[in-house]
Amino acid sequence: MLSRARTDQSLLVEWWRSIDRPTLMIFVVLLIIGLVLSMAASPAAANRLSLDNPFHYVYRQSLFVIMGVVGAFIVSLMSIENGRRLAVLSLVGATILLLALPVIGYEVKGAVRWISMGP
Questions:
Q1: What is the pLDDT of residues 46-86, one digit of tens each?
Q2: Alpha carbon 111 to chain centroid distance?
Q3: Which pLDDT score is estimated for 12?
Q4: How far apart are CA 60 and CA 7, in angstroms?
Q5: Higher model confidence: residue 101 or residue 23?
Q6: SS percent in the chain: helix, strand, coil, step 5
């Protein structure tokens, strides 16, 4: 890695100094494994559903990977206090949504789903 002077106070340099690198590497490896596995499974799943693009699911998974990386980066830039606040708010919000699911959800083939997103 490139070494930066301790006097460099830019946001990315401070972020790099403060993150847990082994956890970051595990995160990246898991993302890569997920993309490789979706590359292996996508053509068969697309063929079974008669989709024109055999890598339809790889593209979708790639979009979710990008959103996840951006979200993880934004959260990692937060202070510890703000990160804890976000975690508590997320927990409370998810619990409320789970409790409201029988009322706001809809049923498809015996399973209750969160929201309707079209076909």
A1: 889 888 889 999 999 999 999 999 999 999 999 899 999 99
A2: 24
A3: 86
A4: 41
A5: 23
A6: 70, 5, 25
Q: Do residues 97 and 60 make contact, with C-beta atoms less than 8 angstroms apart?
A: no
The phi and psi torsions of 24 (rounded to 5 degrees) equal -60, -40
Q: Is 112 helix (H, G, I), strand (E, B) or coil?
A: strand
Both tokens of 55, joined, read: 């890598």
CB 27 within 8 A of CB 72: yes
Q: What is the three-class DSSP state of 61?
A: helix
User: Residue 20 has what DSSP assignment?
Assistant: -
pTM for the predicted model, two decimal places: 0.72
Backbone angles phi, psi at 16, to 5 degrees: -65, -35
Which residue type is seen at 39? M
